[in-house]
């Protein structure tokens, strides 16, 4: 027996495996039983390359009704998928189904970019790619030869950015960059941000993080770094935070001890949505409360009995329809 051979130290449903020598093995197999939804009568979609150096693609979803027959140009909704910065893709069935439903339910053009994943590419790589995807949209708005599906029938002045879980964290980071003037995308105008159960962290555990675990998220996945040090399951924060950092890193904890003050920033309107039974509920609620105290324009909506991923994993459910009404109201309010 070779006692020096690399052995498995992290495993997320076989989709992501990390070995003792630092090597990583990924599988393209989706880890949960969620069938692809066929909504071709209502929504069409296509893939586009947006970052040639990193070979990153995005998927555009467009209502099947011709823009010429619509009453007005459609808003654009960016969607950043979740997965703890470590797993996930625009091609995964839950993400694809979610974007189909967003396009049809909101009557919007949905853009779902992929981004580099940890641990091969630790933060801020994912945030950098999110910003690059918006710069791609800016290039389309400025180009005389832009992507065909964006050449007519869309409103570059009504763009919204949405993210689920870690994607919600990314949406927050993009909001900060835009407010600070670090990310300029004119003539594109981002009117607001929708954060679905944003994946924030901290070295001090909240009450909701004490459990119980959920169907698609558990304490082992969260790994607060200070807890479960010996557990061999996937620990999203430990795998994604910059080397040497903790869950209080500014990219994880917006109000951590070393995080810059958000008070001076003129943030665009933010809608925070969370399930009442989520492990992440307390952090999402605290985030909204703190921003409200700072005078920011923020709305917090809680769906009492729901768990993490309630919209992403079942976007055609009754509660998903209720959420679509909330988002529609937000988009309508912030469009003028």
Q: How is this structure best described in words?
A:
It is a single chain. The strands form 2 sheets. This protein has an 8-stranded mixed β-sheet, with helices on both faces. By secondary structure, it is α/β, with parallel strands linked by helices. It contains 7 helices and 11 strands. Helix 6 (281-293) links the parallel strand 10 (270-275) and strand 11 (298-303). It has helices at residues 93-106, 125-142, 166-179, 219-222, 236-240, 281-293, 318-334; strands at 8-12, 16-19, 24-26, 43-51, 56-63, 74-80, 109-113, 154-164, 190-196, 270-275, 298-303.
Offer a concise description of the structure:
The chain is an alpha/beta fold. It has seven helices and eleven strands. It has helices spanning 93-106, 125-142, 166-179, 219-222, 236-240, 281-293, 318-334, and strands at 8-12, 16-19, 24-26, 43-51, 56-63, 74-80, 109-113, 154-164, 190-196, 270-275, 298-303.
What is the helix tally?
Answer: 7
Distance between the termini: 69 Å
Biggest β-sheet description: 8 strands, mixed
Instruction: Give the class from helix and strand content and strand pairing.
Output: alpha/beta
Overall mean pLDDT stands at: 90
Give the strand content. 15-25%
Helix content: 25-40%
Which of globular, elongated, flat, extended, rod-shaped describes the shape?
globular
